[in-house]
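Subgroup meeting minutes
Present: P.N., E.W., G.H.
Scribe: E.W.

1. P.N. recapped why we're keeping a running log of single-chain structure predictions: easier to compare across weeks, and new members can see raw inputs and outputs side by side.
2. G.H. added today's entry (233 aa).
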Amino acid sequence: MDNRDEIKEWKKAQCADPLSKRLAIKKMQRRRWSARITQLLTEGFRTLCSKMVSFFWPFQGQFDPRFAIHQIRKHGGTAPLPVVSRKGSPLKFREWRPGVRVSKDVFDLPVPEGTAVVRPQAMLIPPVGIDSRGYRLGYGRGYFDRTLTILRPQPLKISAAFELSWIATIQPQPYDVPMDFIVTEPGIHFVSRDALVCLRDPGETIELSGRIMRNRDCSSNQSEKSTAGLESK
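Output recorded in log:
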């Protein structure tokens, strides 16, 4: 599949099945699955409690990340929400906290008003579908992928969704960005170069996520130092 318009239409069609399954879930079942994913996030990613972690407001039956964010904020973390500043542009992230003034953004989702624009160190990213190589299928507007291609250092990328979101492939293109971890109610999956690896021990997740964040911070610092050295010559 080479034609970009064809791929776009194909991806749009692929959204229908996982989305219809998600919308068919009964409210109590959704709450149970969300509670399980929240537990996995809070136990497996404890290093996020002091970090800037962006999240998403639940939409059309998505996993609800607000309970995990409550725990992150309770232990000193900060929680920005994505904001669409202009169609076709990368997202901005504004700090959110309970009681902050909000307005409606794309899909009529709330976004903070007047708070600081920040750069997340980690991101909880919603998918419609997810595939076995760690790529996510969104709603087709490309905001997250467009944003991820320019963020340096790259944030820790965690896609959290219900197990029914799996699809065979999203036909990833050069502009698609794979996740670092995928969390569904059965467990946490690490996205390695070759395949998804199911992590059985929360300690594995803590160690891996911490190492990824440290390496990216170090790479960014080295890049900045190299650039500074070149500019001074």
